[in-house]
Amino acid sequence: MFTENRTGPERRENHTESLTENRFLDRRARAQAIVRNAEHLLPEERALARAYFVEGMSASEVARLAGTTPKTVLRRIDRMVARVTSLRFVFAVNHRKSLGRMRGRVATACLVQGLSMRETSRRFGVSIYVVRSHLHAVNGMFDRIARN
């Protein structure tokens, strides 16, 4: 990175360039991971991830296409990124088939797709209590695995 004969501002400038490059690579790797995980999301969120992270559209451009405000787009992106980068998301994606039919569907709806318990209960025609019970069981499984 540095050579011994560099001193003063030149050395600092080189160090700053390498830090900036590392941040750019970290951002790029994170964006690629988000897009990879977006395959598990609802089609609308998948399109949002693709437009923002792959095509490089700004929040204003995406908002114009979606008929909403840039602030709303950024809020959706923040929530989506928080969800797809969480360990619970990864757990739900990796274990949903082994959780049983309804528990896997609840884990997918709530933890992967980001639906509320109310939306999930309406989608599957069950009570919120049933959804909450399955979600509680999935969170317990995750916590047991995370402790080990």
Task: Annotate the secondary structure layout.
Layout: H1 8-37, H2 43-54, H3 59-66, H4 70-84, H5 87-95, H6 101-112, H7 117-124, H8 128-147
Brief synopsis:
With 148 residues, the chain is mostly helical. 77% of the residues lie in helices and 0% in strands.
What brief labels describe this structure?
8 helices, single chain, 0% strand, mainly alpha, Arc Repressor Mutant, subunit A, globular, disordered N terminus
Describe the overall structure.
This protein has 8 helices and no strands. It folds into 2 domains: 8-84, no CATH class; 87-147, Arc Repressor Mutant, subunit A. The chain has helices at 8-37, 43-54, 59-66, 70-84, 87-95, 101-112, 117-124, 128-147. It is 77% helix and 0% strand. It has 148 residues and is mostly helical.
Largest β sheet strand count, sense and barrel closure:
none
Number of domains: 2
Order of helices and strands: HHHHHHHH
Bulk shape: globular
Radius of gyration: 21 Å
In total, the number of strands is: 0
Q: Give the N-terminus to C-terminus distance in angstroms.
A: 39 Å
